[in-house]
């Protein structure tokens, strides 16, 4: 059987490299079933800091009177707030207010640019059997699922895996109206995932046809779980698509 090719969309203020690192355990446990392909979102973000925040992706730490870090990896987004000023000039900016865990609710702009990026990726690096999105990447993937019929021939895939997702700009869609087979993975209480509320992920799942959607709830926070029984459920979902690749 040919392995499933799954396009992976990272979360807000991440990049393909960091998301690949965070999902290394998942990729290892799915190595006989799937190949994960990681890409950067199109919208580059400025570096925002408070007082000496730790960041494992940076090579230097703050010295007195200097910027917090140098040589940091660039960060990207699929959706941005209305006051987004375009491509980052890579300068550091002090946060005007404390970081708000509900900021994702204001990041609703620039879908068309991100959709065009995905069209190019499917053309140049496809085909893909499925899309996996994490956090804001899941919100972006859900919007693509909602337009799947309209995008036929440009963005074709068989399933979506939406992890810690939430709905953005989906007011025109009704409950159960999205027929794309989907797997929804999220924390089962407000405490366990402090970045995306579980009710937000459940709300997103409600837009998908229950007849072809699966929900996995876990107690491990804002991550994609890879221990049993969760990884077994993920594999069970993927097996139904392997039959088409014999």
From TrEMBL:
It comes from the Eukaryota. Residues 3-233 form the Serine hydrolase domain. PANTHER family: THIOSULFATE SULFURTRANSFERASE/RHODANESE-LIKE DOMAIN-CONTAINING PROTEIN 2, THIOSULFATE SULFURTRANSFERASE_RHODANESE-LIKE DOMAIN-CONTAINING PROTEIN 2. This is Serine hydrolase domain-containing protein.
